[in-house]
Amino acid sequence: MDEIITKDERIYYLDTAKVIAVFLVVFAHLFSTYSLERIFIYSFHMPFFFLVSGLFHKWKGKVQWKKYLNMLFVNVLLANVLYVIIGGVIYHSGL
Prior knowledge:
The chain contains 4 helices and no strands. The protein is an all-alpha fold. The protein is flat and about 50 Å long. The model has no long low-confidence stretch (mean pLDDT 77).
């Protein structure tokens, strides 16, 4: 899973993930402020964008999946679960 990739090679699945992340950032702004679609997309689109973009921070010729999954994905997942639970309670209570 930790393949060595030279600087000249592209990792196309990460390029595709970046395109999807940028699309979600733009697409989320098309909905009205309190629509369910916007709330759903806002719950993960920026963390996803930073996660995909951050995979190349301190590039060492390979994607260090274990490091990023442990450090970023677990924290992002936990934050989003808490956001959805707490945000859902606040949204449905009318606050």
